[in-house]
Amino acid sequence: MDRKKAALIAGLTVLLAVLVFLFFHSGGRERLKESEGQGASSSEAKTPPDRATKTVRLYFPREEDGLLVPEERQIVADPSLAREAEEVLAELISGPRGDFLPSLPAETKVGRVFVLKDGTAYVDFTRDIAEKHPSGTEAEMITIFAVVNSLTVNFTSIKKVFILIDGEERETLNGHLSLDRPFLPDYSLIAKR
What we know:
Layout: H1 2-25, H2 28-38, H3 43-46, E1 53-61, E2 68-76, H4 81-94, E3 110-115, E4 120-125, H5 128-131, H6 137-154, E5 160-165
Parallel strand pairs: 4-5
Antiparallel strand pairs: 1-2, 3-4
Helix pairs in contact: 4-6
């Protein structure tokens, strides 16, 4: 009887691993191909006139001190938290409109966002986030907390963010900050204006 239980548990574990793999590796690439053909990176350019919008706050670093400064944008309102989170991240990738620095490399794409009931958001970026990222601990910290703070400020159900690259866990973003755990927001990095 114990062998049957062990075999059942092993089978369920393998099935779960396959489902997680398929979740992070399916669908997102199709959406990227569609959006690449559209040419516009701003959700304002893609927003159909009859769709409701929502104001969100994004965070970009200020050149003089590296602190994060908020910038408001409009995204398409969606009943899916994951889709709205993907829109927020796409806007963050599109870069600042004011006199701030980009938070993420422009070549970065968002694969998928998945939010667990405990408030952990799993965000899957393409490898460009690491390969095109400027080197340094401070640059990595600003990128990570621009993402984390932008998601947690706009979505109260997101409490912490786990960053994946190409559907997999990585040790670091670009050799400095560890990505082995989810990140809580750090609002001390936000400029007081």
